[in-house]
Amino acid sequence: MAASTYERLKLHITPEKFYVEACDDGADDVLIIDRVSTEVTLAVKKDVPPSAVTRPIFGILGTIHLVAGNYLIVITKKTKIGEFFNHVIWKATDFDILSYKKTMLHLTDIQLQDNKTFLAMLNHVLTVDGFYFSTTYDLTHTLQRLSNTSPEFQEMSLLERADQRFVWNGHLLRELSAQPEVHRFALPVLHGFITMHSCSINGKYFDWILISRRSCFRAGVRYYVRGIDSEGHAANFVETEQIVHYNGSKASFVQTRGSIPIFWSQRPNLKYKPLPQINKVANHMDGFQRHFDSQVIIYGKQVIINLVNQKGSEKPLEQSFATMVSSLGSGMIRYIAFDFHKECRNMRWDRLSILLDQVAEMQDELSYFLVDSAGKVATNQEGVFRSNCMDCLDRTNVIQSLLARRSLQAQLQRLGVLHVGQKLDEQDEFEKIYKNAWADNANACAKQYAGTGALKTDFTRTGKRTQLGLIMDGWNSLIRYYKNNFSDGFRQDSIDLFLGNYSVDELESHSPLSVPRDWKFLATLQKPLRGLLPVGQVT
């Protein structure tokens, strides 16, 4: 069983070394990390000294270099999310960051303070909910991608075969990834959202699963990371897959979301809604084409659903997006603009049916993935809906949940769970599960990008827009305003450090955290590293 990592581990600590012992049945492997030379080697259980201090751990997240030297990051607590085709899925809920160095006496006071700040940044990322893993299943790929693989792929380790877009600890695992013999200790971790439910309709039991995979390319927080980078990676890119498992048959429907894929920014400046700025000198078509070239290769046809306002400050972005699609002239890309706020004003959310009717034929054409209990592929999904609003959060999630329900209706009818003519939205018990799961997905994606729960989740949970929902949206909007202006600089720096977009160099002659600040806005008090990172990471 090549594609698995060790599930049960013990960490033995001595002043000179870390020993990570594999405790799975029949395992004799021990990973040794030298705390002085930082060398990583493989040994056996008899090599662990009896004097070592021992504790259980649930995975190695990886290693990172800070001012004081190297650190080992391990998973210390986990919660079972459920079982996925007999594979257990876990959420990592607590971590420990262990210094290779036994003392900090080699540091100056400034270095000590910097090291403390970098540790706070790592801890900040690790406290954001949504890190998932499995020791036996590849969570980074959709069912359709996994069905279309070679025997060589099946023999690869989980780390080697993972979709690197969704391995959030890829940078932290770089030392282990360079040594294939230790790959069973290297655990790829996903960031996003996973929920699983055992459901029943008409006395027929099926598993319903929702997975959102957040890309680690151009990752960041709301106002600091918008648009695309030169490689064509879009900000807040999330792949969401809805899965049904019934009587051995599996069905899947995949959608994506991502920032409007041109070069634009919207920096916090204490205004409630900063004006979006489209870069006037960048080669938009170059990045735009790179983005959609990769999307078409991975997913097939693209149906873009652009939900931004078609007037006011959002209008230039909508116009630019439409113009770029038209200029590209690809038969694989279709563009639909739907002014969500205009169409649904005065709480007329029933008008979302206008959009669903408009794309119904396209959705039937894109289809979904279905494999029967014998492993035979019945249908492939031929492309995806790529939805966006400004943040790719609130409006986007509402539309995605409606498209996913329509697909699920077709899947459950085909599988024989729903009778002919039966409507999914009339199944009260399942509808409650469905709506709450999609609202939880919205909250997870929003907290990871904007720092608060999602807006408009009253509609996702109940199918209605309510006055209480409006009040809660107002409250969350206020919290977003505060965080975007006064703490998101720190959040962005933390993500860049964690993902390796910024590397600590203890030989720097000055502290990177003591750069002269621009006092023009009070908001700049929050930004310890802004401007020091590579240009591609901060635009």
List the helices and strands and how they pair.
Blueprint: E1 9-13, E2 17-22, E3 29-34, E4 40-44, E5 53-57, E6 59-66, E7 69-84, E8 87-99, H1 109-127, E9 131-133, H2 143-147, H3 151-155, H4 158-161, H5 174-177, E10 190-201, E11 204-214, E12 238-246, E13 249-257, E14 264-265, E15 277-278, H6 284-299, E16 301-306, H7 315-328, E17 333-337, H8 340-343, H9 352-366, E18 369-371, E19 377-379, E20 383-388, H10 394-415, H11 428-449, H12 457-462, H13 467-486, H14 488-499, H15 535-538
Parallel strand pairs: 13-20, 16-17, 16-20
Antiparallel strand pairs: 1-2, 1-5, 2-3, 3-4, 6-7, 7-8, 8-9, 9-10, 10-11, 11-12, 12-13, 13-18, 14-15, 18-19
EC number: 3.1.3.64
InterPro entries: SAC_dom
Enzyme class: hydrolase
In short:
With 539 residues, the chain is α+β, with helices and mostly antiparallel strands. The protein has helices at 109-127, 143-147, 151-155, 158-161, 174-177, 284-299, 315-328, 340-343, 352-366, 394-415, 428-449, 457-462, 467-486, 488-499, 535-538; strands at residues 9-13, 17-22, 29-34, 40-44, 53-57, 59-66, 69-84, 87-99, 131-133, 190-201, 204-214, 238-246, 249-257, 264-265, 277-278, 301-306, 333-337, 369-371, 377-379, 383-388.
Keywords, please?
about 550 residues, alpha+beta, 13-stranded mixed beta sheet, five-stranded antiparallel beta sheet, about 30% helix, globular, disordered C terminus, EC 3.1.3.64
Using only C-alpha atoms, the radius of gyration works out to 24 Å
| Distinct helical segment count | 15
Low-confidence stretches: 517-528, 530-539
For the sheet with most strands, the description reads: 13 strands, mixed
EC number: 3.1.3.64
Pfam family, one: Syja_N
Protein name: Phosphatidylinositol-3-phosphatase SAC1
GO molecular function: phosphatidylinositol-3-phosphate phosphatase activity; phosphatidylinositol-4-phosphate phosphatase activity
